[in-house]
Amino acid sequence: MIEVKGVSKAYGGKPVVDNVSLTIREGCVTSFIGPNGAGKSTLLSIISRLLQKDGGEVLIDGRDVAQWKSTELAKKISILKQSNHVNLRLTVRELVSFGRFPYSQGKLTKEDWSKVDEAIAYMDLSDLQHKFLDQLSGGQNQRAFIAMVIAQNTDYILLDEPLNNLDMKHSVQIMKVLRRLTEELGKTIIIVIHDINFASCYSDYIVALKDGRIVKEGPTETIIDSAVLQHIYDMDIPIELINGNRIGVYFK
Amino acid sequence: MKLWMLIAALAIMSVASLFIGVKDISPLDLFSMTTEQWQVMNISRIPRLVSILIAGVGMSIAGLIMQQLSRNKFVSPTTAGTDDSAKLGILVALLLFPAAATMHKMLIAFAFALAGTYVFMKFMDRLKFKDTIFIPLVGLMFGNVINAATTFFAYKNDMIQSITSWLQGSFSSVMSGRYELLYVSLPLLVVAYLYANKFTIAGMGEEFSVNLGLNHRLVVNIGLVIVALVSVVVILTIGTIPFLGLIIPNIVTLYVGDNLRKSLVHTALLGAAFVLACDILGRVIIYPYEVPIGLTVGVIGSVVFLYLLMRRKAYEA
């Protein structure tokens, strides 16, 4: 279980995350939404120990992240940041095999390789596995990185704007995979996402942040609501029910 | 390029290298060598070959590690202030501790090279504008600033000539008894191989490394120590060999990729083969005189470097 208790972080005296407390539900997709500068990515980085917090606690399975050994934590929780501009020439298979690093420290066993094969198959990358990452499209690249995280086989998967720079088709593909990961493999997934409609269609739980604080959190249908969204984004977002999904029409 | 082709080329050139020189020794003499021929072999030819191989491997690997850790294809000991800091260190050692043993001079130069490289890496972290070409240019400027200090103190103390000799790498003065320091780099290269996977992950960035539970800072520091020590050892025994650490890893990347586990061996072999080829060329071209290795590698290397730059432009367009 991930528990966030009174976490704060400031840059140059300006609070970016301000006394945030939160419990993440297991086996669910949780989305962090909110306007730019709300502190969503910062919070995600703090939870995954990429950033030091100024105050508060982040407990993962009851133990503070700072007390976990980094290699052990790497078997529990994984994070993908939005900027995966890798300028290294690595093949998809090589990248995915790095997901086994926490287990093997670089000396992959037969079992590690079979996990790598499984992850590649799961993301439907078998045909591309010997291609270099710089020969692939943005969507294929993102799939390769998610395959790496699958190989890392952590209970918790954190993704910072996984749909950044992806077209609609690839966005849908990625979101469907995330759903499958929770439903088939029981993973707990937290994503930072800008498109409230993707958040609405694919997440179980939404946390809305603004100015470093949680404005409201709850099951998806309670957040995708005109009044709530008005408060978060300061704009009028009518909600339409289309095929059972709550869709915010914010374009005009 | 296949690995066996590199090995074969290296083996053939190594043998050839032993029989090229002012003193005529033919492979046919091998079993009936005169004492004089044997001495030439033992004191000059074999040490020369060994030092070429070690220097070629060492500088190429140092460049490869540097590029991986700085995440920039154009950073190498020559373009990151490592070589220049090492030279300043050697000068300081010569001025302040003229009686010190070579090993001590090496340690002083090593401290300077490590500090210089570290400062450059820290500086690079702070730069907002991380253009691929801009960063090595900053490194070159940084190196030149250090060089200015070196030249100033060398001039004051009438040591410009010895400084120039380190600038110009050359294998002609390699003799048994004067190159053994190079062996210091061998265990370092073994460590580099053992850390290959970790360097590759570190090259993906700090956040990527932390996600996988890798101690990023430790791995970077180990890499910098290897780079600085190998550079110092090569500069002290041979001199600077420009472009080597830059072009060899870049060529290998093109056909093997950036997974250090795979590219390290290729880089090492290609580096050794390239230096050996340049050295043989330098020895043959104005026979019986010879062109210093710094010059041959510099000329051929700059052409290859230009080609890589152009190719990169074409690739981006």
Automatic annotation (TrEMBL), chain A:
Gene Ontology CC annotations of this record: plasma membrane
InterPro entries in alphabetical order: AAA+_ATPase, ABC_transporter-like_ATP-bd, P-loop_NTPase, Siderophore_ABC-ATPase
Keywords: ATP-binding, Cell membrane, Ion transport, Iron, Iron transport, Membrane, Nucleotide-binding, Transport
UniProt cross-references to CDD domains, sorted A to Z: ABC_Iron-Siderophores_B12_Hemin
Membrane topology classification: Peripheral membrane protein
GO MF annotations, alphabetized: ATP binding; ATP hydrolysis activity
Localisation: Cell membrane
GO biological process: iron ion transport
Listed name of the protein: ABC transporter ATP-binding protein
Lineage: Bacteria, Bacillati, Bacillota, Bacilli, Bacillales
TrEMBL record, chain B:
InterPro entries listed in its UniProt record: ABC_BtuC-like, ABC_transptr_permease_BtuC
Stretches that traverse the bilayer: 45-67, 88-121, 133-155, 181-202, 222-252, 264-286, 292-310
GO biological process, one term: siderophore-iron import into cell
Superkingdom: Bacteria
Membrane-protein topology: Multi-pass membrane protein
A GO molecular function held by the record: transmembrane transporter activity
Keywords of the record: Cell membrane, Ion transport, Iron, Iron transport, Membrane, Transmembrane, Transmembrane helix, Transport
GO cellular component assignments: plasma membrane
Main location: membrane
Subcellular location: Cell membrane
Family per similarity comment: Belongs to the binding-protein-dependent transport system permease family. FecCD subfamily.
Protein name: ABC transporter permease
Species the sequence originates in: Paenibacillus soyae
